[in-house]
């Protein structure tokens, strides 16, 4: 899974854990062992729930509960996100409790497993969103609003917002509920996992309608 290099300006959301059927093959681009990661995902860390309890059998997440889709996301990003939950730089009681007994090697294997999972079609939970809201989302995601110092998402998250290496997660096809949740967390200073807090600065320039628009538009874009 090769990603293009891209100039970075801003960071967005993170993610959690997922599940899929048996029989995952080792991908030459992964550094962890996806087969072992699959076993760990099935059994959990010994004290918490297995990954599928929140993130679904195919890593599709849960839009209603704002649990993210992480199937096919970058391995390094997933690994660092799980580390952040363990270390407390990202706060989510369920995530921290469910992975607290995993060693770094376990997290690396889990991340490799999740990265190999196929990505489902873009979410449909926003099928009735007003065209005007989607048009606003498209403008912000694609062009930004430079008068308000809001850069386009792709300036960091790559072409078509597919993600860039381990630093910038793919946003296309992510659940709108999760994107909105994380934008609000950045806006309210509840996410501290980025040393520069670049995303916090951008999120604070978005109003409620703009957040809804960005989340709705990104959720409808295909994750390639």
From TrEMBL:
SUPFAM superfamilies linked to this entry: Cytochrome c
A Pfam cross-reference name: Cytochrom_C
Protein keywords: Heme, Iron, Metal-binding, Signal
Gene Ontology CC: one annotated term: periplasmic space
Keyword ATP-binding: no
PTM annotation: Binds 2 heme c groups covalently per subunit.
List of residues binding heme c 1: 51, 54-55, 95
Annotated residues for binding of heme c 2: 153, 156-157, 199
The keyword Cell membrane appears for this protein: no
Signal peptide start-end: 1-25
Domain Cytochrome c: 32-118, 132-222
Organism: Pseudidiomarina sediminum
Entry protein name: Cytochrome c4
GO molecular function, one term: electron transfer activity
């Amino acid at each position: 899974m090769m990603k293009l290099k891209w100039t970075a300006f801003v960071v967005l959301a993170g993610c959690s854990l997922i599940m899929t059927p048996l029989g995952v093959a080792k991908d030459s681009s992964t550094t962890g062992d996806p087969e072992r990661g699959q076993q760990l995902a099935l059994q959990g860390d010994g004290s918490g729930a297995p990954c599928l309890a929140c993130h679904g059998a195919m890593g599709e997440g849960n839009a209603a509960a704002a649990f993210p889709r992480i199937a096919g996301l970058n391995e390094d990003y997933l690994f660092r996100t799980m580390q952040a939950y363990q270390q407390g730089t990202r706060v989510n009681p369920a995530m921290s409790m469910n992975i607290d007994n995993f060693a770094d090697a376990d997290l690396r294997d889990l991340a490799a497993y999740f990265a190999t999972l196929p990505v489902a079609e873009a979410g449909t939970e926003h099928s009735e969103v007003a065209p005007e809201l989607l048009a606003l989302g498209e403008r912000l995601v694609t062009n930004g609003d430079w008068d308000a110092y809001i850069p386009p998402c792709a300036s960091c998250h790559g072409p078509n917002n597919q993600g860039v290496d381990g630093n910038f997660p793919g946003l296309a096809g992510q659940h709108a509920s999760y994107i909105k949740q994380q934008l609000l967390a950045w806006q309210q200073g509840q996410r501290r996992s980025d040393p520069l807090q670049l995303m916090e600065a951008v999120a604070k320039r978005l109003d409620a309608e703009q957040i809804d628009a960005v989340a709705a538009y990104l959720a409808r874009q295909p994750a390639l």
